[in-house]
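Dear Dr. H.,

I hope your travels went smoothly. While you were away I took the liberty of generating a structure for the chain from your last submission, since the lab meeting agenda had it listed for discussion. I wanted you to have the full record in hand beforehand rather than looking at slides cold. The sequence, exactly as received, is reproduced here:
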Amino acid sequence: MKKCLLLAALLVLSQINVKAQQTLFNVSVPSDTVCVNQLISLTSNVTGSSYYWGFCSGYLSNEPTGLNLGNSFHFNDPGAIDVVKDLDSNYYGFVVNTGSTELLRLNYGHSLTNIPTVTNFGNFNNILPDSPSTLYIAFDAQFKNWYVFVAGGTNVSNSALARIDFRSSLGNNTPNIVNFGNLYNKMNGPKGLFVGYDADQTRWYGYCVNKASSTMVRFDFDNNISNTPLVNDIGNPGGNSLSNPADMVAQLDNGNWYFFVVNDGNNSLSRIDFGNTLNNLSPIGNPLTINGDQLDNPTSITITEDCGNYHLFIPGKNILVPGQYNITRVDMGNITGTSAQLGGYYGLNLGNVGQEENPTSISRVIRDYDNVYAFVTDTANNLIRLTFATCQNSSIHSSTSKTPPEFSYTNTTDSPTVYNIYFAVDEGLPTQQVACQTITVLPYPKIFLFPSDTSICMNDTILLRAISGEALTFRWSPLYNISDSVGTSVRAWPKYSLKYNLEVPFADGCVVDTFVNIHVKQVVADAGPDRQISDGGKTILGGPNTSIGAGFTYLWTPNQFLDNVAGTNPVADPANDFTYYLTVSSYLNDSVTCSAKDTVVVHVGCDNIHLPNAFIPGSTNSTTNHFAILNKEIVKLDYFRVFDRWGNKVFETTDPTQGWDGMENGTNAPVGVYVWEIQGYCSAGQRFTRAGNVTLLR
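The corresponding predicted structure, in token form, is as follows:
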């Protein structure tokens, strides 16, 4: 059986995974390390017909979850499973039953989360090899035909290889089958079947390992996968690479072929290097050392590449502890294990992920956009689905734009968390390209900000302070009413409510963007413009900019010559030049009151005489019940006389404060028009002489 990584629909183009191209896009954070909520921007370096960005994609370095789908799929001691995506975007799985010599097809439809339906092809009228234990799904991209290769048998006499032709669709219910038998008697309990195009895409080759004889076999199909192959016995590469091999997987990396083998005989992992061609009868065998958790009776193997790192997934069983089964993930920074980052090959026992009972096979790993799956069979005839779950911690889950919007990650743990960005261009087309990039999100570093949110009165100044022992610098913005743009302490005096941003970079690449909200209590006092009024005149104080509302109080001082000292627009009639002060106040909190002051100067000019043009003797209104001079700036009065229409004088005085009460010789003067004349001096020394008339009303 053979599995290799499938990145979405890339399988329809080639069965061999070529390492994802990391140059398809650029990330705005050079170290690939960010803080919680730090914005990340991505830029595509390619142009295509479609784009898909996944910001919270399944990540192979995270432990998968397993779901046991049960044993209702007609399994009978399943020996091998593999799952692929067809050209019509339907997913199909194939399983060989070692116990009943049957080929099963699992139809998942368009989603691997579906429970598959089963088609049982049986043994094709006894053409299928006996005790089938390994299979491989191959696609001929030139002719767009699908093939399923099956091998089985336990010894030389019953081992055989078969090819099943599904033509253009794996959904074909009447495929053709040919059983090649045991060509040249080279197979002896075949395992780990693989069939693929060579790197130069000129010849088809197949390989398997013999469990019974610990040898490797090559099948040469020449330039047509439909040919009957020639067979060569490779032997045991290196003399000790194979020890009752249980399974094998192939990988093309940077133009070179590598095969990984799990050995049941000594619980080991080996790598067989073929160089740049499968046409190599003398590959180099390399028994490998695994750091960390070791293999435990391995039964199957699959390989996948994710964000520049390779991972092997190897099911196993513990024969000394009945019922103890596990899946081991072997991580390698690069395929030869020479990466200093991971220190060679590192094993991690994931435990019994899906409650499998004696696992027999694991499929290739399939990435469907952000979701990543693999499937496992066991001797209890169960089907287990492994899921490398997507996260929910990105501010935007995905985008189909060439240039996606900025996004960020959250992190609910106190330790760094790794997230995966997945990018696909021209999904499902021959020009398809895929890439991924991991982003490490660091917990929010310790930054103490004083104050975090505060309120001040307008025109007040506040001190902003930031403390962090690991920060490289502190950058403040905007540069509005602030003492400096850089520093741990700055002074700010905004005129209106404002958010001051603080950017704090750290040496590990983390950049914290935080802020201080300053709520400014705006209190404006507008007493109005200075003005000139005539002696005896009135004016309305207050301007349009004064703060208005129930939360404000108003006070005018001094309180002379005002009709209302607590209003916004009192009427003033000062006797001389006067300066008024307006104080507007409002509570900021229980202990602080914000206030503002403004002044207005009222200049009183003595350039005319002011008398009413009518009066009503006996009226209750003190300003209209007598006829008197309204001016307050008169310091001397030569005369103030009133005459009736016949020229008779009815009133005279030299006292500026005295007025006519409408009486003539002790009796009420008749209603009518009267003539007045006046002569006197203002406080500034100006002399005036005026005359006019007034109407007496009753």
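Two observations you may find useful: Residues 4-21 have pLDDT under 50 and may be disordered. The radius of gyration is 48 Å.

With kind regards,
E. W.
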